[in-house]
Specification:
Blueprint lengths: L5 E10 L2 E11 L4 E5 L6 H8 L7 E5 L4 E4 L11 H5 L7 H13 L15 H13 L5 E5 L7 H18 L2 E5 L3 H7 L2 E6 L2 E7 L11 H13 L13
Parallel strand pairs: 3-7, 3-8, 5-6, 6-7
Antiparallel strand pairs: 1-2, 1-4, 8-9
Organism: Kitasatospora cheerisanensis KCTC 2395
Keywords: ATP-binding, Nucleotide-binding, Transport
GO molecular function: ATP binding; ATP hydrolysis activity
């Protein structure tokens, strides 16, 4: 059996007297897409930040690959750099890096915006630039912290399709933190639910592609996940305007 990209055992993170994460065991295989669900304040982002070396564990073992990148809810582009400069920030300067950055922008549909300023981009375009910045580094682990939460419904669906396609092509291990149950089922190979500092569910998504919310298997998994989250009535469907 190959070594997983992410290997976590007995992870604890305490803030004050509260254990936000309490004895987490988690593996993510290379090339696997894991979605992590949970109510606000359950420690989803804390776990992601620990895997991204943006926070520390108080106890436990955390093994992650050195090549990892994070895409946040906000694009976090540097206003004083053009889009291409944002994508390649921190990489060695030169023609080869610029060409690599342009290829990454082409992958996310922003080839024509390489010389644009971040302020001229729409929300979806800015988030695509942030995704290109992450993928240009060819990470072994891609950490997505609710990257679509601030987008309108239609743009969100398009970004989900884009991320799914790019992850299948690049094959990093992926951890997606989200509140959106349908998004988790639509994108992930596995879905985990975090509640009261512990993982209460961690299972494969046995729904055939293309994943349609009207599929009985999709609907059954949605109901189970919502119950894990303490929601016993399905929310009304959201329609893109």
């Amino acid at each position: 059996m190959s070594t997983p990209a992410v290997h976590v055992r007995g992870l604890r993170r305490v803030f004050g007297t509260r254990a936000v994460l309490d004895g987490i065991d988690l593996d993510i295989a290379r090339g696997e897409f894991l979605a992590l669900l949970g109510a606000s304040g359950t420690g989803k982002t804390t776990l992601l930040r620990i895997l991204g070396a943006l926070d520390r564990a108080d106890e436990g073992t955390v093994l992650v690959p050195p090549a990892r990148t994070v895409v946040f809810q906000e694009p976090r582009l540097i206003p004083s750099r053009r889009v291409l400069g944002n994508v390649t920030v921190g990489l060695p300067r030169g023609a080869a890096t610029r060409e690599t950055g342009r290829r990454a922008l082409a992958e996310v549909g922003l080839a024509a915006h390489a010389d644009a300023w971040p302020a001229t981009l729409s929300g979806g375009e800015a988030q695509r630039a942030a995704l290109a910045r992450a993928l240009v580094r060819e990470p072994e682990l891609l950490l997505l912290d609710e990257p679509f939460a601030a987008l309108d419904a239609l743009t969100r669906l398009r970004m989900q399709d884009l991320v799914g396609d790019l992850c299948r092509r690049h094959r990093p291990a992926v951890l997606l933190v989200t509140h959106d149950v349908d998004e988790a089922i639509r994108l992930a190979d596995r879905v985990a639910v975090l509640r009261d500092g512990a993982l209460v569910r961690d299972q494969s998504v046995a729904v055939e592609h293309p994943r349609d919310p009207a599929d009985p298997a999709f609907a059954a998994l949605r109901r189970a996940l919502l119950a894990d989250l303490g929601v016993h009535r399905e929310p009304a469907p959201q329609h893109a305007n």
